[in-house]
Amino acid sequence: MVQRKSPGDAAIHGFIIASMIFVVVVTLYPFYYVAISSISDAFELSRRRGFLLLPQGLSLAAYREVFRYQLLWRAYGNTVIYVVGGTAINMTLTMFAAFALSRRGLKGASIIMRVMVFTMFFRGGIVPLYIVVANLELVNTRWAMMLPRAVNVYNFIILRTAFQAVPTEMEEAVTIDGGNFWHVFRHVVVPLAKPSIMVIGLFYAVEHWNVFFHALLFLRSTRVYPLQMVLRNILIHHGGDQLAGDDTFASQYLAQTVKYAVIMVATIPIMMIYPFIQRYFVKGVMIGSLKG
Amino acid sequence: MYVKPGILKGNDGTPLLLQRKPTLRSYLAKYWILYALLVPVIAYFVIFHYIPMYGVIIAWKRYSPSLGIIDSPWVGWRHFESFFGSIYFWRILRNTLLINFYSLVFGFPIPIIFALMLNELRNVAFKRTVQTISYLPHFISTVVVVGMVFDFLNPNHGIITMLLSSVFGLQPRVWLNQPGAFRTIYVASEIWQRMGWSAIIYIAALSSIDPELYEAATIDGAGTLRKMWSITLVGILPTIVIMFILRIGQLLNIGVEKVILLYNPLTYETGDVISSFVYRRGFQERPNQSFATAVDLFNQGINLMFLVGANFMSRRLTETSLW
């Protein structure tokens, strides 16, 4: 059945398509602009500012500066530690909680649930949290970046819902064979709920990659700074000027392209894995929206 | 399964199973593993959530780190009184409310409109591409987004500064030092970063609308706009209501990260919000941690009231609620 569109409908569709193209351009152009500026020649770029479509001259000088900048690489290493270690802690605790509280017949489960959910609505606030972290002598240690946010209750609820959806027959099959809850966890629930576990793991990992405030709050020394903290010093507190080396005429220009290169270095990992993981994120939001 | 002792009979009267009441010992033999798994979880919540909740008592004390929470002297409501009496009270309350209000007015409908428009695209590949691109910015860190904002608003070479001066004739200036521009910058960059991501929940809701409704409407001669309005929008209305309640519940809540990256003393007047004020008073200029805690506590209380109130209203009006 072919339907002819009315002129009004055709106009609306045209408008919608134009709007969508506008959205794509507005979303992507900033990244594109940063990318082409980062490989531009600093002096050429300074003469021709504005909306660029192509790099102005070609130069990797900015990247050379960035690669020489040890503080940035140490911070990169720290962030990797926080992402891997932090996510491991997150997942261990969140999966334990989600599994235990998704089993039937556990006495006290509803109280523990309430204790957890309550923290979504009321928090002690940053000062009392800081006092706890300080009393545990975690200030300025890597633990401060990994422990205080070990369980995200929202993620826990998503995972619990997924664990509850695992058919009980499979659990019974394990217990009849003499297996205990640990076997059920290892051999039934975890393998079957793998997609949801992946989603939650990715949520946590991105959070660790991006978080900045906790570093500001808990860390004092550049030794343990994560990437975002160093980025902030370069991009926002104008540390890029020092980064471009001596106070020469050329480095004045270079300081600009160095900033673009730093942004690139910090976002490329996310950009690279994004196409592969984005569908998991969407799935995660969908699971959450069903029973959130 | 808990089964009463004695002989249970099925519907037809024959004995089902003979089972004794499970003892604590047999219960624990089975369930101890689950409790063991919960031990670190409960420890985490106690240490990093409930002890800080107890720690809020320093809002009524003159806390000094050397004395500790318990031994610091009580001062009653002094911190609350000095906060309510200070010029900062109205300033940060107004800023928090206004930034959230603008975010609500502009930031709330845009993802819905985006989802509705996306839903009209017939080319699946194009649709998926637009959607995927739209939530990319959500995964970029706040620091990088604010870093880009700084560059694009640079008075000498920023592309947005140039756009504003060439298209709207606005003189190039240090926009980030302009109190009048702060909220616009905050809200606009927020929309840029979150539009696509916020739309996902509506897109999910859209997929559950019965396609037959569209066919029926087409046969009745309804045009595209009519269908978008009467079927699509109505179909996702419950989701919109829920999201709206959640948003209202957050009206006095602004994340501290972006504000403290964007603002500076020149823009405190319009940009300083409750959370950034708490951070500054707690950790930066002349730290007074008890005072900061009192302000934070006030914020939490108001937030809770907003959430409960919005939920109550919604249950009354639409029979849709969070709990």
Description:
The complex is a heterodimer of chains A (292) and B (323). With 292 residues, chain A is mostly helical. Chain A has 2 domains: 116 residues, no CATH class; 149 residues, Orthogonal Bundle (MetI-like fold), CATH 1.10.3720.10. Chain A contains 15 helices and no strands. The mean pLDDT of chain A is 86. Chain B is mainly α and 323 residues long. Chain B folds into 2 domains: 59 residues, no CATH class; 236 residues, MetI-like (MetI-like fold). A two-stranded antiparallel sheet of chain B has the order 1-2. The longest helix of chain B has 32 residues. The mean pLDDT of chain B is 88. At the A-B interface, helix 1, helix 4, helix 5, helix 6 and helix 10 of A face helix 1, helix 5, helix 6, helix 7 and helix 8 of B.
Question: What key attributes describe this structure?
Answer:
heterodimer, A: 292 residues, mainly alpha, MetI-like fold, 2 domains, 15 helices, 74% helix, globular, B: 323 residues, two-stranded antiparallel sheet
